[in-house]
Amino acid sequence: MQWRNTTNNYGALAKFLHWTIVILIIAQYVIIEAAEELPDGVEKLSQVSLHKSVGMLVLLLAIARIGWKLANRGNPVPIPMPGWQKKAAAAGHGLLYLLILLQPLSGWAMSSAANYPVTLFGWFQFPALVAPNHDLHEGLEELHEVLFTIMAIVALVHAAAAIYHHFWMKDDTLRRMLPFGRKPAA
Amino acid sequence: MTHWPRLSALGWVLAALLAATPARAAAASTTPTPATAWTTVAASSSIEFTGTLAGGEFTGKFQRFVAAIAFDPANLAGSRFRVEIETGSADTADADRDVALAGDEFFEVSRWPKATYEASQFAAAGPGQYQARGKLTIRGIARDVPVTFTFKSNADGSGAILSGRASVHRLDFGVGQGEWQDTKWLGDEVRIRFELALRR
C-alpha cells in the first residue's frame, strides 16, 4: 500500500479521503431529503441529527484531505492536455476543496443561529459558531442550499471530465484516483 | 404480635384529637417571624434551562415569571420562596421548538399555564450557600426539588442577588408525552439556572 502520491498515481490516503467524502456527501443529500418528508417528531430529530453529525465528519475529513494535500506536495505528474483544460481542472478542484469546507461550516453556523447543538454522533459537542439569530438562520439556510447546488454542479462537471478522459482520451486521469490500489496502465 | 385495644369509632376520633392537640398548639407557638420580603426586579432576573438534544446541550429561558422571595440568611426558618413561571414563555430562540414546548406533548400550556416552585425549608450549605427544599409543580405534578443557591446582599442591605441551580427530570412531570418519553434524542435531565435581582 502506497500512502503517499507517486509520480503517476494518487496515494492510498488521498484516495480514501476523496472517495469517503464523495460517499458521505451523497448520503447527506439522501438523509436530509428523507428527513424533510417526515413530520416533526423524534424520527425527524434523529435524521437531522445524523445529517449534522455526518456533516461534521465531512468537515473533519475535508480538513484532513486539504492538510494531507498540502503536506504531501507532489501530485502525480499532470497528464498532457490543453492549457485551458488544466486551468479549468485546477479551478474546479480549488472550488471543490472550498465547497467541502464551506458546506459543513454553513450548516454548523445555521444550527448555531437556531440555537441547536451540533455534535459528532453525540460523542462531543462543537461550540456554537454564531449567537442565536432568526434572520441569520434563514440566510444561512438559503446559503446552505445554494452551496449544495453549486457543489453538485461542479462535482458533476468534475466527474464528467474524469469520464471523458477515461473513455475518450483513454488516459490515466480517472484510473489514478480509483480506489483499491489499482495501478494505472503503464 | 401487638394486640391493639378495641375502640369504637368515636373512641378513635377522640384519641386522634387528643394526640393532635398538643402538637398543633406547639406548632402555632413556634411560627417563625417572616423573613425580609424582597421585590424581584424582573428586567435583571432570569430563569434559564438547559436540555440535551441528540447528545448536545441547548439553553433557553422563561421570559415571564413572578418570584416572591422572603429570605434572610439569619432567619432561614422564616424564609419562603414562591415562584410562578409562565410555561408558555419558554424561549429557545427557535419558533418551531418553542411552539412544540408549549404544545400538548410538553408543557400543555392551554391546560397548565403555570409551573410553580414553593419552598419553606432552608438549610445552610456552605459559606454564603443555601439549599431550599421545596416542591416544583409542572403540569399539575408536584415533586420535591432541592435548589442550591447563593445569596449576596449589597453593602447597605437594600438589594441582593440570589442565584442558583437545580436539576429536574422532565419525565417526572410528564414533560414529553408519547414518543417524547424516549430519552435517546431528548434527554431526561434538564438543568435550571436562575439569577434573581432583589431589592427591598
Description of the structure:
- The complex is a heterodimer of chains A (186) and B (200).
- With 186 residues, chain A is mostly helical.
- Helix content of chain A is 66%, strand content 2%.
- Chain A has a single domain (12-177), classed as Fumarate Reductase Cytochrome B subunit.
- In chain A, strands 1-2 form a two-stranded antiparallel ribbon.
- In chain A, a hairpin with a 5-residue loop joins strand 1 and strand 2 (125-126).
- Chain A is elongated, with a radius of gyration of 19 Å.
- Chain B is mainly β and 200 residues long.
- Chain B has one domain (33-199): Lipocalin (Beta Barrel).
- Chain B has an 8-stranded antiparallel β-barrel.
- The longest helix of chain B has 21 residues, at 9-29.
- Chain B is elongated, with a radius of gyration of 21 Å.
- Residues 1-5, 12-18 and 20-28 of chain B have low confidence and may be disordered.
- The chains are: A mainly alpha (186), B mainly beta (200).
- Chain A binds chain B through residues 40-42, 45-46, 49, 52, 114-119, 121-123, 125, 132-134, 137, and chain B through 53-60, 92-96, 100, 179-180, 182, 184-186.
Percent of residues in β-strands of chain A? under 5%
Query: In whole angstroms, how far apart are the ends of chain A?
Result: 18 Å
SS field, number of helical segments of chain A: 4
What best-fitting shape of chain A do the alpha-carbon axes yield? Answer: elongated
The major β-sheet of chain B equals:
8 strands, antiparallel, barrel
Classify the oligomer: heterodimer
Order of helices and strands of chain B: HEEEEEEHEEEEE
Percent in strands of chain B: over 45%
Q: Give me the side-by-side strand order of the main sheet of chain B.
A: 1-4-5-7-8-9-10-11
Structural class by SSE content of chain A:
mainly alpha
Major sheet of chain A: 2 strands, antiparallel
Mean pLDDT of chain B: 89
